[in-house]
Specification:
A seven-stranded mixed beta sheet has the order 5-4-14-13-12-6-7, with helices on both faces. The protein has a four-stranded parallel beta sheet with strand order 10-9-8-11. The protein has a three-stranded antiparallel beta sheet with strand order 1-2-3. It is built from 22 helices and 16 strands. A hairpin with a 2-residue loop joins strand 2 and strand 3. The protein is globular and about 100 Å long. It is α/β, with parallel strands linked by helices. It is about 35% helix and about 15% strand. The protein folds into three domains: about 60 residues, no CATH class; about 220 residues, Rossmann fold (3-Layer(aba) Sandwich), CATH 3.40.50.740; about 200 residues, Dimethylsulfoxide Reductase, domain 2 (3-Layer(aba) Sandwich), CATH 3.40.228.
Amino acid sequence: MSNSTFSGKKRFWKNSEEFLLPTNELQNGNQEFSTDYDKPPVFDSAVSRRTFMALLSATMAVGAAACRRPDHKLVPAVKAVEYRTPGIPNYYTTVYQNRNAAYGLLVKSAEGRPIKLDGNDRHPISMGVSSSRIQATLLSLYDPDRVLRRPLLHGGDSSVVNALNTMSDAAKAEIANGKSVRIFIDDHCSPAYSALISEIEQKNPAVKFVTVSATHADGAAAANYAILGIDGEIVPDLSKADLIVSIDADILGTDKNSVYHIRNFSSNRKPTKKNPAMNRLVAVEAMMSLTGANSDHRIVAQPSEYEQILAAILRGVLASKGSSAVGASVASSVASANHPSASKIADMLISAGEKGIVITGAHLSPTANALALSINLALGSVGAGKALDTANILPNSGRKSPAIETLKAELKSKSVGVAVFADVNPEYFGDREMKALIAGIPKRISLSKYEDETSSICSIVIPTTHYLESWGDAVSFDGTYSIQQPMIAPLNESSISIQDALIQFGKALNPELFATTPTYFDYLRARLQTVLPNQKEWENALQDGIVKKMSAPPQTGSLNVNQDAAAEWTSKVSKSKPSTMVCHVALSLTINDGDMANNGWMQELPDPIT
């Protein structure tokens, strides 16, 4: 068995099929075990791959050696840092503000750097727990996009001092020309910040502060103000309710007080032999939420049906409980209300009595919130020591729409010469009208942690500090007062806290302002001087995380129900029919309204509701 192709040479074949292959295919197959693997497969070269890799490695080694750091002599720490032992972390208290909701925190710090956030178990709202949002703020502290920012003046790098001076000069010039200054701020729960704002406005009549927020909603505050005379949102205590009916209120998810609500809700979800009873949750919503996922009964409804469902529930409750709590006019306004999902809910609420509560989303209409409040009044669940205690008012949660409408009128009249955006981004969340009006303001200044849409349209941009880098204070809806102390010096040396920037701004406009309090720390310390007169009490307050002398629970006033206002609001029930397609906009469980979009932890956190 011979083959001319292999004559004169010894050949080996794997099998008979290989022996019968044509010459060219056999040669291609032999390359699988070629001995000249060191040669480039595409083109001929005098340099083999092995030689090339050797030269490349040597070049990299030489280059790396040339880039070595210069020698530095070690300087011993002759004086040890007080309260710090290498390898042993320290713990400090502070407070986190999710807009106007406050949570006491316990911060774990290693070698002067915060590395872990937990709830302060001495704070009655957080009670030792936190949330994914709070945990993620730690990553924002070390975010390079925040830390590496520089102040910008007309597009070029500047310093904080120059930027603030230019900001003050611009305001003075516009005020001299008869214009006004408007400072846009977000929701907050800081008494010292509120006092600072009041002082600046009193000493400078041309300067006004306006609260604008991406999550702005006046529904609950408007209803409470009209019916009870309370300009704010009432925070419910779910631990005092046996039946909770949620109408598009994600109390266990995106709600600002979700940490507080989750603890109170779960406290009655553990039946025992002695107490086998368990609370029940009914969720009426358009899209699945964490609250709906944890509910005992979930009813899917379109947003256009919410008012009709509430009106029908109110009719059923009043038929059983009577209308004395809200007035006969309210009963007549909902006499014809009807919805197939309402009768069963009404029966459950009637059985629960004052232990039943209806919660509506603050973003819903004033009519929807007025209907829910009327149901709760009829059930008797509103009052001191009950699920809806009128003493528990969310700080600074009053109506914002009147001030915003006044602002729009001022912008249309071209009376505003300077706009300062204090860590708010209306260019992102504002409507088309607001964006167009802002574009017409001659001078725009941004005080922000990040480069955002609003800072891109401003001529002066000043980076601001993280809450773990600055002093402050906060009060919770139950009256608990906490001090926000910095955990670390500002990582961005070219940043300043909003309050310190406003102090400098106020002093520049009126030298009489803040003469004895050049910094916000001095201002805060001076405000607390009567409560914490000496250093020992100040340190105790910082150690506990709360100021006990200022944390007295607010007193519940007598209920004065405006039955005429209740009848007026409850008579405005929408008659619209369900649509085949609805666009439902909701907050994200991870990035919220977009303010956590630059946080990698929240971006990668899976949404539990898909």
